[in-house]
Design brief:
about 60 residues, mainly alpha, about 0% strand, elongated
């Protein structure tokens, strides 16, 4: 495996690796969303309280 410094240097040089990074990020975000949906189905009470907490945060947030 390459170290992070070498890898980031390669990413800056190669525009194709930027596209690959975006693909990996999109895949990660899809999997994260899927995992959250699964958790919400498995633990509906916790999901409901999380939704209510999020709604309260959004209501009190000042734009």
């Amino acid at each position: 495996m390459s170290n992070p410094e070498q890898r980031s240097r390669e990413d800056r040089e190669d525009p194709l690796s930027e596209a690959a990074r975006r693909r990996r990020r999109a895949q990660f975000l899809r999997e994260l969303t899927e995992a959250r949906e699964l958790r919400d189905r498995v633990q509906p009470r916790r999901a409901k309280t999380a939704r209510l907490r999020h709604a309260m945060r959004m209501r009190t947030f000042r734009w």
